[in-house]
Amino acid sequence: MTSKPINQQTLLFVTGRLAETSLREVVAMLSGRLGFRYEIAVPGIQVAALLHVSLLKNRLGVADAIDRVILPGWVQGDIVELEQHFNKPFERGPKDLHDLPEYFGLGKKQRATLDKYSIEIIGEINHATRQPLGDVVAEAVRMAADGADVIDVGCVPGETCPQVGEIVTALRAENLRVSIDSFDRTEVEAAVDAGAELILSCNQSNIDWVTKLGTEVVVIPNTPADVDSLDRLIETVAATGTPFRIDPIVEPIGMGFTASLERYMVARRAYPDVAMMMGVGNVTELTEVDSSGVNMLLAAMCEELGIQSVLTTQVINWCRTSVAEFDAARRLVHHAVTNQVVPKHIDSSLVMLRDVRMRGQSEETLNALAAALTDANFRIFAEQSGLHLMNSHGHWQGDAPFELFANALRANPNIDAGHAFYLGYEMARAEMARMLGKEYRQDEGLGFGLAGTLSGSAAVRHEQ
């Protein structure tokens, strides 16, 4: 790399004939903004994906005035050979020429630092009292790693578990903060004695004894629609000096969801300085839809209303990464609200099913590439027009991968089992990418946002 500043450099950009016009437009814009001089070389080939170091050594000319040579990211071979041959610095740029602005530090905002948030996540282990202790601890550790600030020991209504104290003690031994979700006095008192710091929940049925434990409680109405009971309970609990937060209770869709959201707004206006909680699992667990978008919207409501904590579960399969999703969501909404910006093009971790952007190859480019191939190695593309499979023996395209493979096999009868497996695997990934609206690049993994970064916490769980 030359030591000259960019505005004193002369850069040589290498491309194929099909991309030359587009490259000139992009490079002209970059030159205007960064001040470098440039030349463009097309070494007698249609498609940049066919460029190879050996070909460039024979066909490329590099003037003395050139400071750097920018190659397409598709170039095969060891570019050190080019540096030694031309005595100039060479570098692979991006595979897509439209990514050049980002490559040169332009065209993309600096990544926001999403290290701040205002919402506490309470991750509930559902029916913890019926599970082996080791499983409960392992699940709690996973939840904490994914972003849970407090682990909630979910008990079973109508049952009294004598091991609750042991469960809380084991979780505290892992340096985890713990809450207890029970109305059973024996369970609650054992959990508090073992170090639980929050009791879910307090209403008229247990207010006479739960407020004597000196532990923070979550105050809920006697029934979700009984707003007056919540007001009376708040007054009574406050008079005892017991620390508390309130939860007006969000109800599932179809069971009064919108009305329950309104109750949170009414409660916040009535109690502007009181801590609040929302049990978001009532929506995520009971709505058959991928949970990431639901978590994002609920996090936005909590952030804007100053609801400082949420209780979430991740039991049913479509919610199995809810803790990590809400962790990403709470950071994103905090950034958006604090900086008064829309939560777009800030962080893509919650875009899991589809991709943020799609950049396909034109029919002209694909046909030219297929016509120029001189080897038997297969290239695979997933485009709106269909799947494309090509090598020097043909170009097969369509919507049905089995049909494409059968046609390719007739023209390439010597494909061995290993190669057939590879092609089947890649064709399956290409079909999946096309179906979901994701970018497919042969031999590269598909992007699944946050879901692609999780392992232990994303393990399949049994539906409850």
UniProtKB/TrEMBL annotation:
Pfam families: DUF6513, Pterin_bind, PterinBD-DUF4346. Gene3D superfamilies: Dihydropteroate synthase-like (3.20.20.20). InterPro entries: Dihydropteroate_synth-like_sf (IPR011005), DUF6513 (IPR045406), Pterin-binding_dom (IPR000489), PterinBD-DUF4346 (IPR025595). This is Dihydropteroate synthase-related protein. SUPFAM superfamilies: Dihydropteroate synthetase-like. GO terms for biological process: pteridine-containing compound metabolic process. Residues 101-334 form the Pterin-binding domain.
